[in-house]
């Protein structure tokens, strides 16, 4: 291990004590989710981009879990962008379209379907035989969520099963590039070479995309097998306090540097995989440990703290030890919403 720099790890703040999972009642989960949503609204989100897309979908999932009407913020956000025009310029600009697909399923308003079709045209022009690239020469786990989840929602809303099949194909293509023998996924590849840094949020993106696809088509056994292997590996590496490190494999340069957005996303995936009957008891138990560890990091105003900033692919593990995590981030709020929504569904269905 010559040449490693564990300085950031050595000075990492100790984790907060987790709460007792039994205290996470339906009322507590719903109240926390609402506070997270209100804090996201207070951020003044206006861009048609990935963080906003994760928030929109998280708000819709929370509303569904609580039996609440469609959040006005989601409708107003989408309406403003429909009025000004949606012009994607990167694959990260696709995921907010999942909210359009959701709204189309709820309302039948053809404007939402038209928005989905425009985004599909842009995306289709970039899809080839291989995995979608995040940047030229680079395949990132993020894309399996940003494009894949959009495809799933459009497939369901527009009654186009071929879109769900394409999401599944992309997921498996990404798994081939980024998957390891351990079951974990790397963040990405650079110039055709996979960089074996097992970033937490990358694993959250792929896990959440995997459950979205399986919920749409439970017959996809190849995805079920690889998703099971990934989540099993994550469960085996989960710290006692419940919150995974920024790199989930315990690398000495990032050990003890926790990351809440990854934990939220992984927890949501575990809850939803368990609901599909995938290692239900083990995955559900791990998900509650994760949420119990995450809960103390949600402040009274709904901020999900200790969320790492937007993170480009790092070529060495040390790079992940110095990403700032001292500001509220839309993807932290959004993945928090996914986690509390999935926990609520679990509580109310048992």
From TrEMBL:
InterPro entries: 6-hairpin_glycosidase_sf (IPR008928), 6hp_glycosidase-like_sf (IPR012341), Glyco_hydro_88 (IPR010905), PolySaccharide_Degr_Enz (IPR052043). The lineage of its organism: Bacteria, Bacillati, Actinomycetota, Actinomycetes, Pseudonocardiales. It comes from Kutzneria chonburiensis. One of its GO terms (molecular function) is hydrolase activity. Keywords: Hydrolase. The keyword Hydrolase applies. The keyword Zinc does not apply. This is Glycoside hydrolase family 88 protein.
